Structures are given as structure tokens and as C-alpha cells.
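batch job 7 of whatever, protein = Plasmid pRiA4b Orf3-like domain-containing protein
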Amino acid sequence: MQAKVFRVETFYYHDEVGRPSREIAVPTDATLHDLADAILKSFNFDNDHLFGFYNNVKKWTRSKTRYELSSDGPYGEDCPGVKHTLVSEAFPARKRRMLFLFDYSRDWRFVVQYLDVIELPDDHPLPSVLASIGDAPFQYENMRDWEDYFDDGEDEDENAEEEGDDEAESQNLLLKNQERTQT
């Protein structure tokens, strides 16, 4: 079975080994939407925002060739959509690079380069990550802080028991008050 291989590198994000990158294999008949899903999964991102592919890697707003998710909807833009565009159309030759821009407000940028067509065993799952360098960035960087913010050091199971104890104590107090008012 043949597969197309892409190198995907974060654009702005750096860690101690440099820019995290992935080599991803997708079916030869994959769409840009399929490629986007594979990219996002390889970096542990949720596919929960708009995105696009742009031929101008440094200044995406000046791209002459672009493919956007928003073009697939009822209010489509004046460019092709990602759900019906094959990767072979957007990346017609080896070494072709495009910017994959994900989540326009957070501005996640990945440089995607088409490397080659390879032969894989028929039972090899696609899409798949063939190589991974560096740790994936957190999609929502500040989410790490939220865990600490809400962690009060108590186990949830302990809290459930305490809440049950509080309810039992409240009922005991109610019964005692009722007994006093009856006598």
C-alpha cells in the first residue's frame, strides 16, 4: 500500500530540542481535512477550531493559494475547501511546503512539507506517525495552571464521603429539633 509522507514542524513553539516535529503518513487519496486531523492528533490537539493551508508560510494573509475549512460550509469563501481537496492537488510535488494555520485566535502554525510516496505493508494503519521529535506543546497552555487552581489537595472520593457525613449530621440535627419542639 502506498502512502504520502509529510514532515510537520511547529512554527513558533520551541522546546529544549528545538521545534517539535512529526513525520506523518496518510493514504494517497487523503483530503486536506484528513491531513489536518492527522497533524492535530500527532500533536495531541483537539480538532475544535477552524483552520487552513496557505502557500505563503511567513505571511499567510498574502497567500495566493489557500484552502480553508470555512470554505466547506454554506458561507464558503472564495477559495477551495479542505474536505474535498486531495493532498495530491495541494502538494503536487515533493518538497512543496505550506503553512497549516489552526485556531485563528491562538494562531497555531505548523509548516507542512510533502516528502515522498512510500510503500507500507497492507496492514499498516493510516494515518500514522512515522517519526516524532520533541514534546507536543499544550494546545491550551494555561490549562496546566487550572488543574493546580482547582486542586485543594483532597481526593474527590473523600469529598463525597464528607458530603454524605454532612447530610447525615444535618438530618440528625433536624430530628433533635423536632423532638424538642414536640415536648
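notes: Residues 2-144 form a domain with the Structural Genomics Hypothetical 15.5 Kd Protein In mrcA-pckA Intergenic Region; Chain A fold (CATH 3.10.290.30).
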